[in-house]
Amino acid sequence: MDSTTLALLERIFLTVLPLVAIVSVGFFYARAQHTDMTIANRLNIDVFCPALIFSVMSAKSFDLPTYSSLAIGALIVVLGSGLLLWPISRLLGVQSKTFLPPIMFNNSGNLGIPLLVLAFGEQALPAAVVLFLVENLLHFTVGIYMLDHRTNPFNVLRMPMIIATIAGLVVSTFEWTLPAAAQVPIDMLGQIAIPLMLFALGVRMTDVDFSNWKIGAWGSLLTPLSGVVIALALQPILQLEPVQFSYLLIFGALPPAVLNYMMAERYNQEPQQVASIVLLGNISSLVVIPVALAFALQIG
């Protein structure tokens, strides 16, 4: 085995190990001690993630047009996965609004942000946040509409993460500088978001239900496959820079977001089947993610 291959394997190992370690801490702690993450998850969605997003978006180094093609690619990966696999849901005899949302809306927050930062360094954080925002915006508009056609898509404008995005872009566009007394605590709050996402994912993994393992197995296979296939097909059109193409490939390979299960439970849309797709998809990512990283790191 040559030195280049060893270096690549070491980089993959050092990228995946911290993620697995923190998720494992959450999993084993929740197995030993009943752990209710409801309040912590709400704080992460309403406070810590918006602080992280504002911190990144308001930075002088953040240049939105740089990531416009990447954002378009992410949008097509999300929506395209649903269109591509809609006939498969019919063949499997599963309701499309049960099967497609976890396929389309991936774990770009809990897993995607820390994965890209660990694999490519802090310079990947703005791109990771853009990918997360595109997926999240689509989830809270298209995703909710798929579950309930009566929903108002403009409610997304009241989400703290969207408000933080707009505020951060305004600060960046006008090149304002917040006083350190404000910027430092915002940055510190944002630093809580990523490890808390991973810990919460580990806690959620204790709820693995294998009663619907067949649909879960199909979902765990088709989620990364559809995302990567669409990302590969888009590259000749979008012609992303190599590093951004690597980001998009990893984005396409991510497992389903845990939020899909919460949404299915809220709208009573066969939550146990959705839980199987989500949880088996995240377990299978232990194999899928290193393979995707091996390919993406050689490109980027």
UniProtKB/TrEMBL annotation:
Keywords per UniProt: Cell membrane, Membrane, Transmembrane, Transmembrane helix, Transport
First-listed, main subcellular location of the protein, grouped into a coarse class: membrane
PANTHER family, A to Z: AUXIN EFFLUX CARRIER FAMILY PROTEIN, SLR1864 PROTEIN
Keyword Transmembrane helix: yes
Species name: Marinobacterium marinum
Location in or out of the cell: Cell membrane
Transmembrane intervals: 12-31, 68-87, 99-121, 127-147, 159-178, 184-203, 215-238, 244-262, 274-297
Protein's recorded name: AEC family transporter
Gene3D superfamilies: 1.20.1530.20
Family that this chain belongs to: Belongs to the auxin efflux carrier (TC 2.A.69) family.
Gene Ontology, cellular component aspect: plasma membrane
Entry membrane topology: Multi-pass membrane protein
